[in-house]
Structures are given as C-alpha cells and as structure tokens.
Amino acid sequence: MFAVDGTSGLEHYPGTVLGELVGSYEITGKIAEGGMGVVYRAQHQLIGKPAAVKLLLPELSSNHDIVNRFFTEARAATAIRHPGIVEVFDFGYLQNGMAYIVMELLEGEPLSRRLATQGRLEERHALVITRGIASALAAAHAKQIVHRDLKPDNVFLVPDPDMPGGERAKILDFGIAKVSEAQRGTGSKTRTGAVMGTPTYMSPEQCRGAGEVDHRSDIYAIGCILYEMVTGRPPFQAEGIGELIAAHMLMPPDPPTRHNPNLSASTEGLILNLLAKSPAERVQTAGELARLLGQGSMPAGSLQSITAPTVAMNPLLTPVPTPASDMAASRTANGQPGVPTTLSGAAAEAGG
Fold first, then answer.
1. What is the DSSP string of 96-119?
2. Residue-range domains of the chain with CATH
3. Are 187 and 179 within 8 A, CB to CB?
4. Calpha distance 68→128 (Å, rounded)
5. Alpha carbon 75 to chain centroid distance?
6. Which of 1, 8, 21, 165 is deepest in the core (most CB within 10 A)?
7. Alpha-carbon Rg of the chain, whole angstroms?
C-alpha cells in the first residue's frame, strides 16, 4: 500500500493506483476515465465508508482556471447539503500537486443511460424525476448557486425506497456553476461573453454568453430534460453547434405531442413554459416548480394553471401570441438574437 503523504504512488497517475491513499480513503478500483481525470472507487480506512475519488489529470492540475472550476464543484456541493445533491467529503491537493475530490459513491445509473436504453419514460415517472431535480436545484439556488450545465449525464438515479417510484434523482457536476461572491471566496469569475455549458441543454441567455444568466437558466435546462424524458429526444437537434445555439435563441421547439401524442396537455403546457425564450416568462423558481409537481395527482390537476404560447407547426414561422399566464403578459416564441462567442464543454462523469 502506498500513501499519498509520501513522494511515491499517485505521481504515476493515470497508471494503476490500487491500494494507495487519498487522505483517509484507500483506492479499491477504477470507475470511469475522461478527458479531464479519472474517478476511482475508494473506502475509508477506519470506518469502511465507500466513496468516489475524482483525480484531475496531472497536466491540468497546474492550470489555475481548470482547478478552480474543479473545486467549484466541491464547494458548491458542500454548501448546498441536500439529499438530491451528491455529497462531497473532502477536496484539495495531494503532495505531488494533483487536485482531488472525495465524494459520495452512488449506486444506480445516469439519466442519460436510462434514456438510451428506454427511449422515453412514462409521463408520470418523468414528472417525479423532474420534481426531484427541481427540489435539489431549489436548495442550490437558495445558496445563490446556479448549476449552468444540467443535462441527463449530470442527473444520477439512485435506488431510494422512500421516494415515489423507488428512486431519487441526484444532481452531479457543479464544475461550471455560477457561485455567489460569498461562496466563491478567492475563486476567479466566469468571463462575461464566454458560453459555458452543453449546447443541447443551454438556455437562450447562456447561448448568447450573456452576463445576466441566473437561476432561471437552470429552469430552462429542466425543460429540455423533461422534454427529452417524455419524447425520447431533446427539444432541438442540429448537425452543428452554431445551428443548435441559434435554435435555442430563435426557434420554437416542436410541441412535445408531435413526438408523443399520448402526452397530457398539462405536461405539454408546462414543458413549453419552461422552454420560454425569455427568463421572465418561465416558472420563476425551482421551488415553485417542485411545488407545482407536488400538488395533487400528476400529471393532471397540479399543472393546469401553467399555460404556454401556441407554437406554430412550422418552426420557421413566428408563433401567434396567446393569452398570458399569471406570471407574464404575452410573448412570441422568438427570443432576442445574439452572437455566441467561445464554447467551453462541461466536464463528463469522470471530469472531462
């Protein structure tokens, strides 16, 4: 067994590190590997508690911006403390300079894998998962933390007999989260004009690289995820990133019932509300969304108060405005145009 307190062992990463120590946790196996790092299975030496250890690649551990983003994930998860957010036990640097995070070991599967195997989910179950995501996000937003990279890869479904449907949704990877100044500490700010996120699930304001991105950007991403859960496809698909970003900013999505005719009108209305181009016209908070999904039976009664604009069947046509919901006046489905700048991809399950 090698201990990272010495000078040998993990400096040979990404080679085999079985039996080595990260703090009090002994590495017992590899879980996944990505472009930015490797995730290992580990166990606390004294109490036997299982954990996952994420190690940043050595060549990236010397990059201040990348390490700061890496540790943002740990700080955000530690600050939130919610059962729907992956728990972080420790983070820091090894003596050889490598950055690491020790976090909760999750048993289950990412939502992306569930969708890949099932195509689409039963409507009621999709709404239960959405409620779990919204509840966890409400806790994050209460700490002035905006995720900014919600996607099926970052939603992990774990068995939980106390939850409806027998499983709980947990949100992963706050690596590009927008953290308040108080939480950020000495961390660097995200540059205004930099487009951060995964294009398939980015809000129109994120696509523009707008500096005013707030918690309602996560609300839009929830809409994208819910759309995909009930239709088997995201709201926008394109061959190129530029086309995809333009679609988020300018084009109305297909009505979900075009791809799932059995979807209820109330759920369709909710999805289209969450995908409003203007943040002011969406459900305004994750807590409000969780409450809507928790009232009465789903998918019926609780969602009837949510209305959405009529979407033109031809996506090249401008939709006709319809009467507003109780949250907004009226709107068209077109958002404000803008020119995206640089793209920065989100970390994958293994940190890359």
1. TS-EEEEEPPP-SEEHHHHHHHHS
2. 10-103 (3.30.200.20), 109-342 (1.10.510.10)
3. yes
4. 34
5. 16
6. 21
7. 21
Taking residue 65's Cβ as centre, other Cβ atoms within 10 Å add up to 13
State how far the Cα of 180 lies from the Cα of 145, in Å rounded to an integer: 6
Alpha helices in 232-328 (DSSP H): 241-250, 265-274, 286-294
Residue 335 DSSP code = -
Interval 82-130: pLDDT, tens: 999 988 899 888 877 888 889 999 999 999 999 999 999 999 999 999 9
3-state secondary structure of 342: coil
Q: Looking at 46-142, which runs of residues are DSSP E strands?
A: 50-56, 88-93, 99-103, 109-110
**Backbone region of residue 55 per phi and psi (left: phi > 0; alpha: psi in -120 to 50; beta: other values):** beta
- Among residues 10, 1, 17, the alpha carbon closest in space to that of 92 is found at 10
Q: Which one of the listed residues 65, 149, 254, 326 is annotated catalytic?
A: 149
Q: What is the pLDDT of residues 140-162, one digit of tens each?
A: 999 888 888 899 999 999 999 98
Q: How far is CA 281 from the centre of its chain?
A: 21
- pLDDT for res 47: 92
Of the two residues 180 and 303, the one the predictor is more confident about is 303
> Confidence class of residue 352 from pLDDT cuts 50, 70 and 90?
very low
- Residue 250 to residue 338: CA distance in whole angstroms: 9
Active site residue 326: no
pLDDT in tens, 205-256: 888 886 678 889 999 999 999 999 999 999 999 888 898 889 898 999 999 9
